[in-house]
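agent: user wants the full assembly modeled, not chains individually. Plan: 1) parse entity lines 2) check alphabet per entity 3) run joint structure prediction 4) return tokens. Steps 1-2 passed, two entities, 447 residues total. Proceeding.
--- entities ---
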Amino acid sequence: MYAQMVKTGASGVKSIDEMDEQERAFQARIDAGEKIEPKDWMPEAYRKTLIRQISQHAHSEIVGQLPEGNWITRAPTLERKSILLAKVQDEAGHGLYLYCAAETLGISRDEMYEQLHSGKAKYSSIFNYPTLTWADIGTIGWLVDGAAIMNQVPLQRCSYGPYARAMVRICKEESFHQRQGYAALMKLCLEGTEAQKAMAQDALNRWWWPSLMMFGPSDKDSVHSAQSMAWKIKQNTNDELRQKFVDQTVPQAQYLGLSVPDPDLSWNEEKGGYDFGEPDWNEFFEVIKGNGPCNRERLEARRRAFDDGAWFREGLLAHADKERAARMAAE
Amino acid sequence: MTSNKPDTAAKDSGAAPTQSAPRRAEWPLWEVFIRGQQGLHHRHVGSLHAPDAEMAVNNARDVYTRRNEGVSIWVVRATDITASTPSAKGPLFDPANSKVYRHPTFFDIPDDVGQM
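--- prediction returned ---
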């Protein structure tokens, strides 16, 4: 998931008795499946939680360009390079759709950037891992975008209109991301040399567990999920989505002839799904805290891009002001 | 609401921007409308920031029509849009509920009359 551990400002679901009249009417609208639009009344905690969730999601799209951008100049063919460029451009677009959705809740774009650059706002833990080989790029499309789709498809039915609409656009484009990644791995695994196949296996070994962590902590440790689900800004629990992801992905790994790096992985006939091991949650919490392999590098790259672009943003504003002044003088 | 008025202090200093320099206002917000194909209305698709109308159209092309979603783009500064408020929903729209005779199905016309 691109938004992990989004705080709701409460440690449980607010009961009907604890709500005032306005909050009760609001919850009734949500329960009836009505969409909430920007100017509607909403509880402050709903607004704040959405800002946190949507901005974290947007930051993830933006920071997510960095690990893949690393391979644009080194893609093996011109076609792969064009595909990767298009994908990374999509990620920028997804970030923009989401920032717009968050802005409808009363936070400015600059405030959100400031929260990202100061480390106050989080982005998905997954983007703090390095992309060491070309196979990592295929694996990211397959697993990371695959996990994102798993989470984003239900978010299209989210109770907040602008967020739901942004998700519809994003989901339409996301399938390309996953398929191009899997296709790149098919090339390596089914037509490639032994060395290329080994490279793909190595990539899967490194990305498997971080991908499972994308869905966030286990349900029993996920204190904010229940309130977010009551507000319908989250539709499924972390564990439900993780299970679904494993069930879908394992056969895809088998098709490639790759083995999933989990000794506890086994088919459970009774539940009609796989049993699998626990991710290393200590690692997850360390990465979230800022101590992953690339946290510092990613934030540094973001800050540098923002600061280095300042003269350009200001130049265009100055030009726009000058043009407007000239137009007014001519009228 | 955002303003596109440049921060005069930063403008006059002429110095390269640094982190300690006063923060410039962000680019204004534009609402984007796209005509999907000839024969259809322009439809609201989202918003974006741009310094002026020309750049807003260019950015809208990149952000909202990467896959042939449009043949025409409108951009409007968000501050130039006047919207009704949620509290006006009742006074504005409720009166229509009591005027069912505005719908053709309100009138029973015998089958013998033929197509109408």
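agent: reporting back. The mean pLDDT of chain A is 94. Strands of chain A lie at 266-268, 273-275.
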